[in-house]
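Q: Got a minute? One more chain.
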Amino acid sequence: MLGSAFLRGFGRWALRLIGWRLTGSVPNNPKVLFALAPHTSNWDWVIGMFALLGVGFKATYLAKHSLFFWPLGNLIRATGGVPINRADPRDTVDRIVDEFNRQAVLYYGLAPEGTRKKVVRWKTGFLRIAQRSGAALLLVSMDYPSKTIHIGPEFKPSGDLERDLDEIMQYFRAFQGRNPHLQS
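A: Always. Here it is, folded:
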């Protein structure tokens, strides 16, 4: 667990202040890939940062490169953000797998949709990262009507990307983002 007792307390207090709660837990595994959905609003980041502080985790996460301007870029980097140019995502899976292989402990988060906009089909990079890195793949949902962040379940990829993706997308359909008209 990372972070001071003060920061953990602040994160939990901030979540309560805005009416949100956490359920579930992170597996006792030094390498976890968080797949967060639905991602339909910039507020997901704010609420997610409070949740990470509250549970005491420092996670690395992908954010679109255009957000890395001063001063916002400094804040995003300080909280674990790594820029990605979605127009040229080459080698992203390889880079993240290499990062998992280099680090003894790594918590990495990403949104399988790849954007806050409505998409028909999610990206499969997160499944390939989980398979190739051996990291635990943890499904994390944000449900705005109940103001609940559900941590878990852990998903074990079968190797069949399309079947696994369909199963994961079906799981996340039970949750509603801030802008449900943008959900897949």
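A: The first strand starts at residue 21 and ends at 24.
Q: Perfect, thanks.
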